[in-house]
Amino acid sequence: MATFNQITTSEQLEALIQESGEKPVLIFKHSTRCPISSRAYLEAKRYLEDSPNPDAAYALIHVVEDRPVSLEAADRLGVEHASPQAILLKNGHAVWNTSHSRITSSALREALS
After folding, report:
1. Would you say 96 and 108 are in contact if contact means Cβ atoms under 8 Å apart?
2. Which 3 state secondary structure label does DSSP give 5?
3. 5-101 architecture in CATH?
4. Does residue 52 contact residue 110 with C-beta atoms inside 8 Å?
5. What tens digit of pLDDT does each residue of 54-75 get?
C-alpha cells in the first residue's frame, strides 16, 4: 500500500523535486489544526488505500509544524500557498494543484492517471 512520507527539511524537498524527473510526485500540504484539512487528508488517504498510481511518490508536509519547508515548497514550485493543498510535480515543476474541498480521492486519481 502506498503511504505519505513526511518531509521536514529543505534537503528532502529538493530530493522530491529531483525525483519528479523520474516519476510523478504528489505533495500533500496538511494543517493538523484545520477540520477542512482533516477531511482532505482523509480523501487523500482513501486515494492511497484504493488504487494509487504505483509509479508515483507521495509526500506530506505539515504546514504548521514544518512551516519553513511548506513556504519553501510554495516558493520553489511557484504555487500560491494554501492549506490543505495537493501539488503534483513532474520533471521538477508543479503541473497541477488544488486545495480545500476540491481535494478528493477521485480528483487525485484523475490527476495521477
Report:
1. no
2. strand
3. 3-Layer(aba) Sandwich (3.40)
4. no
5. 999 999 999 999 999 999 999 9
Spatial separation of the C-alpha atoms in residues 17 and 64, rounded to whole Å: 21
Show the CA angle centred on residue 72, arms to residues 86 and 85, nearest 5°: 15
Q: What is the CA 77 to chain-centroid distance, rounded?
A: 12
Domain ranges of the chain: 5-101
DSSP state of 90: E
> What are the cell numbers at 40?
482532505
Give the confidence band of 51 by pLDDT, cuts at 50, 70, 90: confident
Give the start-end residues of each E strand in 9-69. 25-30, 57-62
